[in-house]
Amino acid sequence: MAESGGVNYDLTNWPDVDLDRVRTTFREVPLVAYPELARYGRPGIHEALAGQGGLFLASDMAKRLALSPGMRVLDLGCGAGVTSIFLAREYGVTVDAVDAAIPEDLANRAAAAGVGDKVRPIRTDARLLPFDPGAFDAIFSLNSFFYFGTDDLYPPYLISFLKPGGEIVIGCPCYREEITSDTPEELLLEFPACLAVHSPGWWRRHFEKSRSATVLHSALHPRGVEFWEDRVRFLIEEQPPREMPPWKRDMIHAMIRMLNRDAEGMVSHFILHGRKDRIH
């Protein structure tokens, strides 16, 4: 069953907020539910990660992969590379960190984390990957796939970089069901990017029709709505909205409007897990 949503936070005095009201309105993902992340703390779980879920979602994604030291992993759309460092530290894998706008300091941050020899930053477009076919044991993509992966030709292109039997895991914002012409405006995430945000069923069909991989799982995350609330709460606790840059303040305002309107849990997160068929 989909996780229900809907909060009731009064935005009348925005950008002034009642921090006690924020804490009683928006759920916080309990750290005790993720003992593997205890050493990171809440700032480390969210720091430099775009989108919701942070390392909570990343950890749940990684658990679906049969990772072991020495494997080669493609972290696709890695942003600042936080997930690349996380995968290298926690699983001992070698990570190709790919993003079109990868920061210059990723190599130094990886070295400071003790995995400088395991994280290779690569600045390139996700549709122009500079790798040999069958180069990777696994592909990992957090909160970015809908920006570049909705084309019908993309799944088979991407899967070609997996070894036979290799695995892919994707975690992203999603709609519980496909949006329609009468979907409330408040629920349209990052319009027009919202047109590339789909339901778990859509993503399953997207990969299955390519016939390049077997989809083992594609479903709403049980904390999918909670991730949105947790992110709002963390950002407001970290910095009062009145002191935020306008773009950040407006983003959080839009997220709260969405959560206020979304009583049915329409906007959530999903995980897709697939395996490349050995015959390919």
How would you describe this structure to a colleague?
It is a single chain. It is built from nine helices and seven strands. The protein is an alpha/beta fold and 280 residues long. The protein has one domain (30-230, 267-276): Rossmann fold (3-Layer(aba) Sandwich). It has a seven-stranded mixed β-sheet, sandwiched between helices. Helix 6 links the parallel strand 4 (136-142) and strand 5 (162-175). The longest helix is centred in the C-terminal third of the chain and has 16 residues, at 246-261. 39% of the residues are buried. The mean pLDDT is 95.
The rough form would be described as: globular
User: Which structural class do the helices and strands define?
Assistant: alpha/beta
**Low-confidence runs of at least 5 consecutive residues:** none
Order of helices and strands: HHHEHEHEEHEHEHHE
CATH A-level architecture: 3-Layer(aba) Sandwich
Domains (count): 1
The amount of beta strand, in percent, is 15-25%
CATH topology: Rossmann fold
Tell me the major beta sheet.
7 strands, mixed
Helix content: 25-40%
Q: Which strand order does the major sheet show?
A: 3-2-1-4-5-7-6
- Give the CATH H-level superfamily: Vaccinia Virus protein VP39
pLDDT average, as an integer? 95
End-to-end Cα distance, whole Å, is 35 Å
Which CATH class applies here? Alpha Beta
Helical stretch tally: 9
Oligomer: single chain
